[in-house]
Amino acid sequence: MKIEYIYAAAERVWSDPQGRWLFDEPYYNHTLALEEYDLTLLPEQPIRLIVMPESELQDGASGLHLRQLLSRTDDANFPLLSRAAQVITWSRDHRFCCRCGEPLVNHDHDLAKQCSGCGLTQYPRLSPCIITLVTRGEYCLLAHGIRFPEVRYSTLAGFIEAGESAEDALSREVREEVGVEVNNIRYFCSQSWPFPHSLMFGFFADYVSGDIVPEPGEIVDARWFHYTELDEAPIPPPFTISRQLIDAFQARWTKPD
Asked: Which of 42, 108, 122, 219 is deepest in the core (most CB within 10 A)?
């Protein structure tokens, strides 16, 4: 059974001159690797992530920023790329023990690191988040966040805080970001999101009351979109959970009776 390899540095995944980013044989000298991890999701498809110095990856290959690669990939490869990205970030940001400060070394068996001093084991971090599409009949509420340089209207999202349920976090985030109240919260689906290490729980929620008041410093604009407007609206790309929520809402109104 062939092992496939992904070569990466920072948040870039590297391809050969033919544009391949998955290799079925070693493409670089693995003795130069900074770290190596098992990313296997299916037993019949073993995959290794090779974290290389960026200087070693510049000869004969080109690097794609992860966001670029994700925008071009399909549903089958998205989980693998998301896993690779989160492991790269975790590997870069967790080099010393948070308890005693000693260096961390790779665990013998698990996808984890272990402290060389006190023995503390640390696994790749996941941060649970909610993402929701608020609906009001034939309308849905979308917002343009301050972090998007281009104009893009998306669903509302935020991290779940300590002690909160996902439903409580959803109600709080919607209230904070746009000033409205919701109820009838329904789970839709989840998605691993690698910027930097989120696990997104997608929901629908119904509008109850309140006027839209964008949160200063977070939301540039927010408004209601009729389902007939969505085809022309600047909304997220198809691979995102935000777009899946929007598409499901639109399909509810456009499917034949």
From this structure: 219
Report all structural domains of the chain as residue ranges with CATH numbers, in order of start: 4-93 (no CATH), 127-254 (3.90.79.10)
In 3-state terms the chain splits into helix, strand, coil percentages (rounded to 5) of 25, 35, 40
CB count, 10 Å around CB of 81? 22
Q: Which residues contact 48 (CB under 8 A, 6 or more apart)?
A: 3, 4, 5, 6, 36, 37, 38, 39
Q: Render pLDDT for 10-27 as a digit per residue (tens, 0 to 9).
A: 778 888 777 788 888 888
How far is the C-alpha of 187 from the C-alpha of 225, rounded, in Å?
A: 21
* Each residue's pLDDT tens digit, 208-250: 999 999 999 999 999 999 999 999 999 998 889 999 999 999 9
Bridge partners, 105 (sequence order): 114
Helices H / strands E in the chain, number of each: 4, 14
Residues 6+ apart with CB under 8 A from 3: 24, 46, 47, 48
| Alpha helices for the chain (secondary structure H) | 66-72, 78-93, 166-178, 241-254
Q: What are phi and psi of 188, to 5 degrees?
A: -115, -65
Q: Structure pTM?
A: 0.85
Three-state SS for 192? Answer: strand
Q: CA-CA distance, 212 to 142, in Å (whole number)?
A: 11
Closest to 3 in 3D by CA, of 19, 25, 21? 25
C-alpha span between 130 and 87 (Å, rounded): 21
Rounded to the nearest 10 degrees, how much is the dihedral formed by the CA atoms of 28, 29, 34, 40? 60
Q: What is the CA radius of gyration of the chain?
A: 21
